[in-house]
Design a protein that fits this description.
By secondary structure, the protein is mainly β. The chain contains three helices and eleven strands, in the order E-E-E-E-E-H-E-E-E-H-H-E-E-E. The relative contact order is 0.28.
Length: 144
């Protein structure tokens, strides 16, 4: 079963990402305390296997926190998931699209931005449909 590997909260635009063992997802808003609130891109996600594959491909060893995604999931492929609903603990997220990499990725590792453009390598962004308190280790699964 897939699990929530880590939670990252961005407190300011272009600011550092703070790791958290617990967080609250707010319906129609996003991750409580995050600088990004509302709109279709309320929460960003990446899967751990994709991140590790990118690091291997580029000969790098960066922590997934360098991706700057709010939620890192382990054991669930996010590719081509637009329109699907994801359960993260008690919360429900509607995947709205693919997260495209920004220039900050090349600042972390040369060539990372281009590598992330393939097969949803940058992860996904979602809207919070049903909020709730989430914790690292929570189950993550697609709604059927």
């Amino acid at each position: 079963m897939a699990r929530l590997h880590s939670i990252w909260i961005k407190r300011a635009h272009r600011g550092t990402m703070d790791g958290a063992p617990h967080a609250t997802l707010v319906a129609g808003r996003g991750l409580q305390g995050s600088a990004d609130q509302g709109g279709a891109r309320q929460v960003t996600l990446i899967d751990l296997a994709t991140w590790h594959a990118l690091m291997t491909r580029l000969g790098a060893n960066l922590d997934p926190a360098a991706r700057r995604a709010n939620l890192v999931v382990d054991g669930l492929d996010l590719a081509d998931s637009r329109g699907r609903t994801l359960h993260v603990g008690p919360a429900r997220l509607l995947i709205r699209g693919e997260t495209r990499p920004c220039e900050r990725m090349d600042e972390a590792v040369a060539g990372l931005s281009d590598a992330m453009r393939e097969r949803w390598g940058g992860g996904a962004f979602a809207e919070v449909v049903d909020g709730g308190d989430i914790s690292v280790g929570d189950s993550v699964d697609w709604e059927i």
